[in-house]
Amino acid sequence: QVQLVESGGGLVQAGGSLRLSCAASGDSFSNYIVAWFRQSPGKEREFVSAIRWSGLSTDFPDSVKGRFTISRDNTKSTVYLEMNGLKYEEKAVYYCAATPHRSGYTPQTERAYDHWGQGTQVTVSS
Q1: Can you tell me the distance from the alpha carbon of 47 to that of 121, in angstroms, rounded to the nearest whole number?
Q2: What's the number of CA atoms in the CB half-sphere (13 Å) around residue 111?
Q3: What is the SS3 string spanning the chain?
């Protein structure tokens, strides 16, 4: 099994940037697709993006397109979420999650992911 630990959250002013990290340990990192989700207070968990071993990533929701970037460093078993131009309403707990690779398909639903980190809080001040 793989264990995931997020880091990099914190307090940032609106318009600012953060880079979140998701460090994996345990099972071989190359076996997994890794995704980022976020959950704002009172809302359901929302898919942000996912990335395969090859670096191929899914598209982002329109709300973050052009501002967020996902990447992975397989030598460090780490996936990153670069967030720019953060908005007040993007205050949330950001989670990374992993699921075993599958051919030709990158899942985007919460229930498809078996392994979750504890989350990292992102707070955006107005």
Answers
A1: 16
A2: 0
A3: CEEEEEECCEEEECCCCEEEEEEEEECCHHHEEEEEEEECCCCCCEEEEEECCCCCECCCCCCCCCCEEEEEECCCCEEEEEECCCCHHHCEEEEEEEEECCCCCCCCCHHHCCEECCCEEEEEEC
Contact 73, 22 (CB under 8 A): no
Predicted confidence band of residue 27 (pLDDT cuts 50, 70, 90): confident
Task: Look up tokens 């191929």; give the residue.
Answer: 56
Rounded to whole angstroms, the maximal C-alpha distance in the chain is 43
Give yes or no for a contact between 25 and 77, defined as CB atoms under 8 angstroms apart.
Answer: yes
- Distance (Å, rounded) from C-alpha 14 to C-alpha 89? 9
Cβ(10)–Cβ(124) below 8 Å: no
Look at 37 and 58; give whichever has higher pLDDT.
37
**What pLDDT sits at residue 72?**
93
How much is the pLDDT for 29?
A: 84
